Amino acid sequence: MIKHYTFTNAKKLAKLNIIATASRPQTIAWCQKLGADEVVNHRNNLAEEIDKFGDQNVDYILCLNDTDGHWQAMTKAIKPQGTIFSIRHLQKRGSRQ
Q1: First-last CA distance in the chain
Q2: pLDDT band at 95; cut points 50, 70, 90
Q3: Closest Cα partner for 37 from 26, 54, 47?
Q4: pTM across the whole model
Q5: Bridging pattern class, strands 58-63 and 78-86
Q6: What contacts 4, CB < 8 A, 6 or more positions away?
Q7: Summary mean pLDDT of the chain
Q8: What DSSP string runs through 37-82?
Q9: Angle at 73 between CA 10 and CA 50, to 5 degrees
Q10: What does the alpha-carbon distance between residue 91 and residue 2 come to, in Å, rounded to a whole number?
Q11: d(Cα 8, Cα 14) in Å, to the nearest integer?
Q12: Which of 23, 46, 80, 88 pairs as cysteine with 73 (C-beta 3.0–4.6 A)?
């Protein structure tokens, strides 16, 4: 349910353009139903997926799982001075490089 409230609040309160990640047709449809403006496939290169929409970089990233696995892609997708939010801590030493 966290995704539902995150989408709803981000769109209504913060007036953000939402780019969600999903890989299966069912989850893509679910993200769109919740109000995602764009949906990218998290199994592909996230920075390249975001570039398809003309957004060179994004202001905010909310990572709800596998921070270590997505860290490199997130650092490429975030704008300078952007913010990465995560509910998971980094496990690997040196992941912040």
Answers
A1: 32
A2: very low
A3: 54
A4: 0.74
A5: parallel
A6: 34
A7: 81
A8: SEEE-TTS-HHHHHHTTT-SSEEEEEE-S-HHHHHHHHHHHEEEEE
A9: 55
A10: 23
A11: 10
A12: 46
